[in-house]
Amino acid sequence: MWGDDLQRAHEKALVKHCGNVPVFVTDYPEELKPFYARLNEDHKTVAGLDLLIPGVGELCGGTLREERYDILHQKLKSKNLLNTLSWYLELREFGSCPHGGFGMGFDRYLQFLLGMPSIKDVTAFPRWTGRCPL
After folding, report:
1. How far is CA 133 from the centre of its chain?
2. Would you list the domain boundaries of the chain?
3. Taking the model in full, what pTM does it have?
C-alpha cells in the first residue's frame, strides 16, 4: 500500500518477483524518510533508494540531502523542529551544494556473497538469547 514501509518479507518477495536479481527501489514517500531527504519535484516523494538483493533483502540505503534552504525551512517548520534544529538550518543559510550519502550492511553483503542462509553465519560476534560471553 502506498505510504507503508517495506518489511523484510516484502523486500524478498519483490526481489523474487523481479527474477532474483538485485533491485533498486527509489523515490520513497516523503513521510518514510528523514526531514533532510531531498524532496522530488512531485512534492510527494524524496530522492532516496534501497538496494535489495536475493536471499537477504536490503543491502544498502541512501538519500540525497535537501540543500535548498527554503524547502528545508518549510520541512522543519511543518514538523515543529525549527527551534530544535535551527543549527542545522544555519549550516545551509549561505548556500549548499547537492550532496547525499548511503550506508551498506557489510555482514549482509558477506551473507549474499557466500550464500549463507542466516546473517549469524557471517557476523564476527553473533549474539543470541542465553549466550553472552561477557
Report:
1. 32
2. 8-65+98-119
3. 0.82
